[in-house]
Amino acid sequence: MSYSKGINATAATMTKARTGNNVCPFSGMCVTCLDGCPGMCEIGKSSVRGKEVLYPQPFGKTTSASEKDYPVDYSHFNIMGTAVGAHGVEADSDKAIFPAVDLSTKLGNEGQMKMDLPIVVCAMGSTKVAAENWEHLAAGAAITGTGIVIGENVCAMDPNSEIKNGRIVHSPNLEKRINYFQRWYNGESGFTSVQANVEDTGLGVQEYAIEKLGVEAVEIKWGQGAKDIGGEVKLDTLDRALQLKGRGYIVLPDPEDKKVQEAFNAGAFKEFERHSRVGMVSEESFHKRVEELRSAGAKFISLKTGAYRPADLARAVKFASDAKLDMLTVDGAGGGTGMSPWRMMNEWGVPTAYIQGLLTKYLDKLAASGRYVPPVVIAGGFTLEDHMYKGIAMSAPYIKAIGMSRSPLTAAMVGKTVGAAIKNGKIPAEYKKYGETLEQVFIASSTLKDKLGGEFNSLPVGAIGVYTYYERLAQGLRQFMCGSRKFGLDYITRNDIASLTKEATEISGIRYIMDVDAEEAEEILK
After folding, report:
1. Is 511 within 8 Å of 498 (Cβ atoms)?
2. Structural domains in the chain?
3. pLDDT tens across 429-447, in order?
4. Contact, 150 vs 178, CB < 8 A?
5. Are 215 and 178 in contact (CB under 8 A)?
6. Banded pLDDT at 1 (limits 50, 70, 90)
7. What's the farthest any 2 CA atoms get from each other in the chain?
8. Secondary structure (DSSP) of 260-275
9. How many other β-carbons are positioned within 10 Å of the β-carbon of residue 453?
């Protein structure tokens, strides 16, 4: 059985096979490769456009996620309900109703970071698609009382940044990103955090954010689930390529090479690639960095790690525990990105269900030895309420929130697009049947108007999309939890889900569905 789809042809890279689905299962090539074919497959297009075909296209307009069909994923688990009792509310049919489910959660080593819903938007960095939708996302996170992380490379990618003696002293883009959240933040629930990679750390981005912009939460980045290299973006002008090489980035091809400049000006290629360096983790340097951030005034410090090999996950768990971090985000392979090498997204790393199985074992070891267990956010392909429930249950009681990126971004982009269509009087037929005004089309508009009052008219319309999407997730999750008779997130246990296959049980430690309640059922039948 092959777990990869479209090996040699995929919508992600705008490639297709001449023979359609009739391809060689292990190579992905057409069973018959025809001399004279213009070559729309990955191999053919690569022979013309080379390394451009490494990445999902078109850059800046899409987000992408793996299309690999992993042997085990969260669909191989089912949520268990019960007809008996209630946890967190009186076992009374008039009181144990799904609107009574409490979805609030807390992060921080002292539970100091409150959120109204258990959702964190993970690290929207310097990619064009993130930058163009940040205002909508940040406002959406703020009005829902949830978290959002400002990703890597924002300052150095800011064309108007001021850098003196190798350190950031002013970045209008970072300032705007923070202000977009603060503009709608209620001061009680939710947060925004500033992430840093190798280049950001060298430039002092987090110190600048803390000392000049009033940021209290920062995140150390080891990586993400979509790739095991540094971040990358594309640059469409020679001036930008030269600027970013001057700021210390790897830029390909070399924009300082006169022959490269001539080729670019002649139209031989239209984009440069900017790449970040990979980090070099050590226990000593990690703890040194945590202390530097605390000394600078950071009140909330988190670590984001990607889908690296199990030993690296163990390091992340141990280091986060020893440093008493406020949050550990573990991002499994397969989730999503604004730009990562397409084959890498499909063929690299530990998939989310697998890495969460390992994570549970490692956190159990910490707990069993009486050591500090940081609040954990699990990420990597979560989009809907059943995913959220399963992600929380699989590593209960350690998971305090679910990390998402692509789906909130989708909600923001669709909200923005539909809002513009309403304004221009060109409403898609699917939505026109609901009406022709913002209030008629967006079902949560009236609720938001009551909540925000006159400020509603200033809200970026994409934020309405995020708010409405989150409201759907919240109600769906409440319904699942009510059916399990769990009226708060802390009441969810691993026993609230069951594996549908023995392989899923082996990976996760979650009981096989035919063995669930075996002892209790035997006692009842006696």
Report:
1. yes
2. 11-54 (no CATH), 59-230+282-526 (3.20.20.70), 232-275 (no CATH)
3. 999 999 999 999 999 999 9
4. yes
5. yes
6. very low
7. 86
8. HHHHHHTTS---EEEE
9. 9
